[in-house]
# Entry
Amino acid sequence: MKFSPLKKVIIILLLTLSAIYVILPSKIPVKIHFGEFDIDKTFTRPGLDISTSRFSINKDFELILGLDLAGGSHLVFEAKVGSLPDAERKSALESLRNVIERRVNLFGISEPNVQSSSFEGKNRIIVELPGVKDTKEAVNLIGQTAQLVFVEIGTGEEPSFGVQTDLTGADLKKATVIFDKNTGKPVVQLEFIQEGAEKFANITERNVGKPLPIYLDNVPISTPVVQEKITGGSAIISGDFTLNEAKNLTVQLNAGALPVPIELVEQRTVGATLGAESVEKSITAGLVGLLMVLIFMVFAYGKLGMVADLALIIFGILTLALYKLIPVVLTLPGIAGFLLSVGMAVDSNILIFERLKEEWKKRNFADALEVSFGRAWDSIRDANIATLVTAFVLANPLDFPFLHTSGPVRGFAITLSLGIAISLFTGLVVSRNLLRVFVKEKKND
# Structure
């Protein structure tokens, strides 16, 4: 189905209005005093909360700031590796760091910084979590060993008389959160590897009609009663879970058990390292630069420049909305990546408009516009691909050891990549259709 340029512009405007809703703050104070007319209210922008039996979406559309802008949590764990031979301590510490990093990433925190440190016989893991002010929840997630076991009830009447089976978290393939069709409450679904599925089938066959307690770190989390032999390698852990508790449990199970015990030796909530004044100056500088670009485009290209400015404003709205939807933890290097992508967005329009000047001399405006977009695409594509390759190297998503893995550097690369992707959309789709509508109106004049 093909849409006319006018319909495409309407779709773009609707998309922009949706993005504006997302970027609005959750609390909007409105104070108007004019004679007898008096309004002093705070309006709340609702988020997005959708839960079904297959998925759950809960978004409050808040912008998350990094440690340098808004602070977060700083945790230090000491690894108990004293019982290990010296040759195995380094690998155990690295394995511990990897498990903790997986847990943090699965927890949904962007740009975490997880480092290992060995000094004067102290082996420690340092964890920095941007935007996380609840250190207790983070400590519980990271510090638990997540040892999952199934226990068969013995001759006694209490679960404590049970016998631990050979089915453990090591037999687990993955854990996911689903919703019970009858109660609508969140439960945790377990899928076992082939060997674990066989163990589970044998255990359930021996315990039909009996409870089969499930323990996590020696604490019973569920005591289901086996109704029949269960084949297929799947099980459900039900209980009075909140959605966050169920998610945290799946994070622990999927990340695996900690290879060595750890002890929390330091925890604190850290403030912004740059300070409010530095942040304010950085934002002011960015706004001034953006305003100068908008003015330059108008003076250099007239009405075409005004269209480019409108596309640039839409670019900013869509980018900020995407930061909130993903979400992206915004740091000062991340802001720098966004501002650089603004330059790339403007650069696309300049290439197109300069080509348009040449083509307009040879043909009518409408044809010249289409030819300009087509011929300028090669330069736009090559420039953006080169920048995306650089951003890929900086982000280092494959964790190559010979490349940098700094959180701020990755933040710069992520915001730059997102900005380039949106700038291509606004430059080649938004600007093009706005100009097509503008050309049609011009021909009717």
Observations:
- Residues 148-255 form a domain with the Gyrase A; domain 2 fold (CATH 3.30.1360.200).
- Residues 197 and 233 are 4 Å apart (CA to CA).
